[in-house]
Design a protein that fits this description.
The complex is a heterodimer of chains A (about 675) and B (about 350). Chain A is an all-alpha fold. Chain A contains 29 helices and no strands. Chain A has a domain of about 160 residues: MetI-like (MetI-like fold), CATH 1.10.3720.10. In chain A, helix 9 packs antiparallel against helix 10. Chain A is globular and about 85 Å long. With about 350 residues, chain B is an alpha/beta fold. Chain B is globular and about 65 Å long. Classes of the chains: A mainly alpha (about 675), B alpha/beta (about 350). The interface between A and B is medium-sized, with 20 and 32 residues. The structure holds adenosine-5'-triphosphate and magnesium ion. Adenosine-5'-triphosphate (ATP) binds next to strand 2 and helix 3 of chain B.
């Protein structure tokens, strides 16, 4: 009793208890691993062959529903051929005219110009036909997605009992990696564009569903009651009043849905079999024709921007522009198409930027030739001194030919000793949790993420879950990770965890700093903001191109691509959290004599903490999403498994690896959300 | 299932109405309400102990045909909940609401829709206008629900739009209107089907004082011609006194007093009610009926024309120069009492000094 009470007194908070437990388990593992290798590598006898089971089970099921699916495929193929025919055989003058007219209607001169020049660029790039093929896929998949999403949203809104379940499913659908959708569909529908079509319809439905639900819930209760008191039936209330009143939010859904569909259509190009722009990128990338692939990527970006800005304008409650002008533009383009039909060149034959592509190739070639050693130095430094130690630990990564010396166990002992001393000092200063966390960190770097004992990982994550929100989350996290462990995907999961962890950490530091800078300087924000906007509009695929150009295939390129994509939310949320601190809090601090810097540290930062955590959460999800795409340019881990499964049409592996990825994302999401929630409650928000 | 009442049936009769929020409210309430059980207060206390919220407790009152009945109380006292029970926007936990003799709590879904299409109109504090519809479409919406053709419903909508003084703005959208104009649209919409019963939940609270006064006057004008049976909610005692035929005062879910404006001002049942009318100049609300004495012998017939319904302020200005006891007549001109000037002066002085 007396022996325990000082310990109890020292460990007076959840955080300290959890950290102490993790350190203890870590210590035990450290001492025991040499004698019990099964602590690191899960014994293969205990591995449950889930992939095979799923393959077999689904195989039977798929055989059963295949006829029905072939029929669906036939119908959709029909619709797609129609859309395709419409877009490709319509003279490009008219397509450009109609786009410009829509732009005018939605946003006046600016939007019209965007549409006009955007499509002109596409035309001049020589990728017109491929682009129209992509667009045709989007045009068929998006209405399906919108319909599906609206139906789901309404269902969740109307039947409050299923709302929670629907939301959970939507969460899951958005964490399942994009490639993972493709494998089962491939098996069901066979090679061809219909797979991409259906995948993008499924992938683009959740954002719509979410926004429909959100919009309906946000309709003013007075408006809803006014509809009731007007004597409307439930259907009348819903369709005549509530849905139209929620239109702004629903249009946000349409915008997100369009972007998701575009992204998925382009990703689906890896299946091949359809001459679309994504395929073009992939093909040129594989042939190392970076100039061409850059150009095709640019076309995708232009497309994305045009679609995003135009559909984004839908979600803004602004006046619409005159329809007279709209008709004039369309008529003018029709007239032009007829009058000039013999003079105008056919769309696919143009290629004004062939030179540009060559120049890009040329200059990238020159650049890599001249600065190749610098680039290599950058890459190797990051690989050998940061990523590799993180992956396999200092004890394996420190080798004479990279670091100049061999790591010895004496060095390990020294590192641990120093860690213990620092931790003790911290504990003495009253920051025991920090000290313990430091010890854990040292242990991880010493051992390497991919060689961590599984018990240590499970306990660590369980402890985090417990601190962040309580027992239930802890059990959930451990359960999900346990599933991955016994499925035999553990090694690959740790590889994924290591790479995305490193990228997320970099994003958090770099993005946090940029967000802070943007918060204090409006000029900085004026520069950063358009870049962020741009990065968020670009489909995932395109991020790979520049990385490949300069750093070739490999983990480092993937690492950079992940950072480039995942850093945006961190910047945005950090800035947003810091600048939206209520004015009266700032004024109270100012009148207490706080300096700008003190206000930032004492008032803005704590207030912004929940928002910043949400940003981190987004960053993590983005990183996972990109991790899978990055498998195209050489990463190991789950992403690679999913990609391989797609190539082999191995549903079992595709689904288990996809699910493992989704579980990792879910665990990370819940943990961070838990912390954010805890912060919010602490602030009384 | 139409009304079963005769000519004397009140437009609305609320009896023992309870609204309890929270999980399992209904069984909890019915268990506590067994005959011979605790008082209202006791029941409410027990409910709160179970973590439930008794927002309306045992409310009973009637609203006569053509009467303007005001419910008043502080924020959170349960006024909105009460009116929502009566229009069945929320499902009451206990009690009954009769409209023209018909038990609307027993009405089927179909019947409720029918009632709303034919007999009920409601105005909301934050207007509740449909943002995607023009003024005329907003106003025509309840008529559209009835299935009336486009032309006819537009004509009817125009009528009420003119009535609320918005003629010429019928094609505007709600976002293009000022607050006062928006509430006019809300009023027009609630009147579109020419309802018998008219619910207004703090219709003028979101408006600034000048516009509010203007709309109150217009509201009184409209009521003078239409003679609806009205339940009007407000937290402003001035508004209540100005508009009401009778006022019910609510506190923490309980109706503590029901009476005419002068009863509320002159005979508050407790400090809570008294506190409301503390700053109200009594001369403006007290009528001679409360001050006059019975007729004894002859009265001075040559004095100013005094009526029972006159407020003290009006009487004072009418007889500033008279020192004789004066006759007070009822609405038909018959002498019903005598007023001594001293009494008047004293009463007005008291009223103003309190
Ligand atoms: N749906 C609900 N669930 C739980 N409690 C509710 C609900 N609606 C109202 N209440 C509670 O019932 C009480 C009365 O609310 P109500 O809105 O009727 O007050 P009010 O008198 O209209 O106030 P105000 O003047 O602010 O409109 C409040 O304590 C409120 O918190
Ligand atoms: Mg209210």
């Amino acid at each position: 009793m007396t022996a325990r009470s000082p310990l109890k007194g020292a460990l007076d908070s959840k955080g300290k208890q959890a950290a102490a437990l993790v350190v203890l388990v870590g210590l035990v593992c450290l001492l025991a691993t040499p004698y019990a290798p099964w602590l690191v590598a899960w014994p293969s006898v205990l591995t449950v062959p889930m992939s095979d089971w799923i393959s077999q089970g689904l195989g039977v099921f798929f055989e059963a529903i295949k006829p029905a699916m072939r029929w669906v495929s036939w119908v959709l193929g029909f619709g797609m051929a129609g859309a395709n025919w419409l877009l490709v055989s319509t003279p490009w003058v008219v397509v450009i005219g109609v786009t410009t007219a829509i732009g005018w209607y939605l946003g006046g001169l600016k939007m019209a110009a965007l549409g006009f020049f955007g499509l002109l660029f596409v035309l001049a790039s020589g990728y017109w036909v491929e682009s129209m093929n992509t667009l045709a896929l989007v045009f068929v998949s998006v209405p399906l997605a919108l319909l599906l999403g609206t139906a789901i949203g309404i269902l969740a809104y109307e039947v409050s009992r299923v709302k929670k379940a629907v939301e959970a499913v939507l969460d899951l659908m958005q964490t399942i990696p994009t490639f993972a959708y493709l494998t089962p569909l491939l098996l069901l529908f066979g090679f061809g564009p219909v797979v991409g079509l259906i995948a993008s319809a499924i992938y683009a439905a959740p954002p719509m569903a979410r926004n429909v639900l959100l919009g309906l819930e946000r309709v003013d209760s007075d408006i809803k009651e006014a509809a009731v008191m007007s004597g409307g039936t439930r259907a009348q209330q819903l369709f005549l009043v509530e849905l139209p009143s929620a239109m702004t939010q629903i249009m946000v859904g349409v915008n997100q849905s369009l972007m998701a569909a575009l992204s998925m259509v382009i990703i689906a190009a890896v299946i091949g079999g359809f001459n679309d722009i994504g395929w073009e990128v992939l093909l040129t990338m594989r042939k190392a024709q970076f100039g061409q692939s850059f150009l095709a990527g640019l076309v995708i970006v232009v497309f994305a921007i045009v679609i995003d800005r135009m559909s984004g304008a839908l979600a803004q409650e602004r006046r619409r522009y005159s329809t007279r002008v709209v008709w004039w533009i369309i008529v003018a383009s029709l007239v032009a198409a007829i009058a000039l039909r013999d003079i105008l060149p056919a769309a696919g034959t143009l290629s004004y930027f062939g030179g540009v592509a060559d120049t890009v190739d040329q200059s990238v070639g020159d650049f890599t030739r001249n600065y190749g050693s610098t680039l290599d130095t950058v890459k190797n430094t990051a690989m050998f001194y940061v990523l590799l130690p993180l992956r396999i630990g200092l004890d394996d990564a420190v080798l004479p030919f990279t670091w100049g010396f061999q790591w010895t166990s004496a060095m390990s002992a020294w590192v641990y000793a120093i860690g213990v001393v620092v931790a003790a000092v911290l504990a003495w200063q009253g920051r025991l949790t920090l000290g313990l966390c430091l010890l854990v960190l040292i242990g991880v770097i010493e051992t390497g993420v991919t060689q961590l004992p599984w018990i240590f990982v499970l306990v660590g994550v369980g402890a985090l879950g417990w601190v962040s929100s309580g027992w239930r989350l802890s059990v959930l996290c451990v359960g999900l990770l346990g599933l991955i462990l016994i499925s035999g995907l553990w090694d690959r999961a740790l590889l994924s965890l290591y790479l995305s962890g490193a990228a997320v950490f970099t994003c958090a530091v770099l993005g946090g700093a940029l967000g802070l800078w943007a918060a204090v300087s409006t000029t900085a924000w004026a520069v950063i903001r358009p870049v962020c906007d741009m990065l968020q509009t670009i489909p995932l695929f395109v991020f790979l191109i520049p990385m490949l150009m300069f750093f070739q295939i490999g983990e480092f390129s993937a690492f950079l691509a992940i950072i480039a994509y995942a850093i945006v939310p961190m910047i945005r949320y950090t800035r947003h959290g810091l600048v939206t601190t209520p004015d009266d809090m700032i004024e109270a601090a100012t009148s207490s004599g706080a300096t700008e810097w003190q206000i930032l540290r004492e008032v803005r930062a704590p207030y912004a903490a929940p928002t910043i955590l949400l940003g981190l959460n987004q960053t993590i999800l983005y990183a996972f999403a990109m991790l899978v795409i990055a498998a195209l340019i050489g990463t190991t881990g789950l992403g690679q498994s999913i990609y391989i499964a797609l190539g082999r049409a191995d549903v079992g592996l595709g689904i288990t690896a996809g699910a493992a990825m989704a579980m990792l994302a879910l665990v990370a999401d819940r943990l961070v959300q838990g912390f954010a929630e805890e912060r919010r409650n602490a602030l009384g928000l | 299932m139409t009304g079963t009442g005769g000519p004397d049936t009140p437009a609305i009769a609320v009896d023992g109405l309870w609204q309890v929020f929270g999980e399992g409210a209904r069984p909890a309430l019915s268990e506590l309400l067994t005959p011979g059980a605790a008082t209202t207060d006791g029941v409410a206390r027990r409910l709160k102990e179970q973590g439930l919220i008794p927002a309306v407790q045992d409310a009973s009152f009637t609203v006569k045909e053509g009467e303007l009945f005001v419910i008043m109380g502080l924020s959170g006292s349960g006024k909105s909940t009460l009116i929502r029970c009566m229009s069945r926007l929320v499902e009451p936990t206990g009690g009954s609401v009769l409209m023209a003799g018909e038990d609307i709590l027993a009405a089927s879904k179909r019947r409720m829709i029918e009632l709303r299409r034919e007999k009920l109109g409601m105005v909301f504090q934050h207007f509740g206008l449909f943002p995607h519809m023009s003024v005329i479409d907003n106003v025509a919406f309840p008529i559209k629900m009835k299935g009336v053709g486009l032309k006819e419903r537009r004509a009817r909508a125009m009528e009420v739009i003119e009535l609320v003084g918005l003629g010429g703005r019928e094609d505007a959208y709600p976002r293009e209107l000022s607050g006062g104009q928006r509430q006019r649209v809300g009023i027009a919409r609630s009147l579109a089907v020419n309802p018998d019963v008219w619910f207004l939940d703090e219709p003028f609270s979101a408006l600034d004082p000048l516009i509010r006064r203007q709309l109150q006057d217009e509201f009184l004008n409209i009521q003078a011609t239409l003679r609806k049976s009205i339940v009007f909610i407000t937290h402003d005692i001035g508004e209540a006194l100005k508009l009401a035929d009778r006022i019910a005062i609510m506190r923490d879910g309980v109706i503590v007093q029901i009476g005419t404006p002068s009863e509320i001002v002159l005979n508050p049942v407790d400090d809570y009610v008294g506190e409301f009318s503390r700053d109200i100049p009594k001369g403006r609300h007290m009528t001679l009926a409360a001050l006059m004495e019975p007729v004894r012998g002859e009265t001075d017939a040559g004095g100013p024309e005094l009526r029972t319904a006159m407020t003290l302020d009006d009487a004072l200005s009418a007889c500033a120069l008279t020192f004789q006891p004066m006759a007070v007549r009822d609405g038909d001109g018959k002498v019903v009492g005598v007023l001594r000037p001293e009494a008047l002066a004293r009463a007005v002085g008291e009223a103003h000094s309190s």
